[in-house]
Amino acid sequence: MNILVFSWRDPKHPLAGGAEQSMHEHMKGWVQAGHSVSLFASRVIGLKNEEYLDGVRIIRKSFQYIGVQIAGFLFYLKNKNNIDFVVDQFHGIPFFTPLYVNKPKLAVLQEVAKEVWFKNPLKFPLNLIIGLIGFITEPIVFLFYKNTHFMVGSASAKLDLIKFGITNKNITIVPHGVVLPKTIPNRKATNPKIITFFGRMTVDKGVMDAVKTFAILNKQGSFKFYIAGRIETEEYFQTVRSEVKRSGLGEKIEFVTNPSDPQKFEIFSKSFVLINPSIREGWCLVNIEANAVGTPVIAYPSPGLVDSVKDNYSGILTRESKPEELANEVMKLVNDKNKYNKLSESAKKWALQFSYKKSSQMSERLIQRILK
Hints:
CATH topology of the largest domain: Rossmann fold
Strand content: 15-25%
Distance between the termini: 13 Å
Strand order of the largest sheet: 3-4-2-1-5-6-7-8
Shape: globular
Helix content: 25-40%
Structural class: alpha/beta
Number of helices: 12
CATH class of the largest domain: Alpha Beta
């Protein structure tokens, strides 16, 4: 079977994240099952217009914000006789495949954007204009997909889709997997204790709440802090650095920008806990990655986080989305070594449940079911 996947970004895109990694792992599984898989994504300066990655053919045309949907439409019209199945990955603006694809198809969604539309990195007033347009039109977009089957990774994402008018029978939850290094690092014996934020340095990921949490903890004990992840815009990164300086944390916080996978797991392994103040996720892979090395996650009770963090088992969900709550839960674990050790062990067990081999087999069976 020839499968065509539409996505804004491919795994090598400089802004690629968990959504792109997840989609790629599913596509790898489909290739291993004997299918021919092509990914149509936006063009990136410095990357080839076409290449193969893990058996997946990647085609890059036009740019992610303007043009890639049109280019995808034209590509489909030219090649539709050689395509058996189409996957439309939602990441803000989808490819509107129900309007022109009359073949079996699947929409893949990490999360709906909702209030995240207003957290875009554009300057005022453009950020507000784009935020309003996105927030108002997002429910309308889903009207085009009423008869399309969706694959999501969490119960939170499924519930949001139902609220947007997609029927329950057209939504299948396929749990995410986790990609682990061949050797799991073990660096827990650190003094002072390390508290980590790991994620894109953006408003919606809550990096400013992480800084506020660190400032509170800095007054209550001896800690070292990590802020690790990709820089979305240099302007916002400098805003974060200014807040760090203003909070008197300049010597206590280490920034690790664009960490490699080995660096990521090394940081998680050294960390006492990972804090996650994101306002909305589809699932959040970093929580499972941290759990895999025995690091509990303390997170806001946000959509997606309530799915990937099993409260009082793989970590702690705060009662409210406030930095004070995060800091309070950290201190509780600092003062309760027995509970911390139990969480650390059960976090590892939680992470072991997630496998992309198993997930890609589930998604391949879903495709076969839709074809019937």
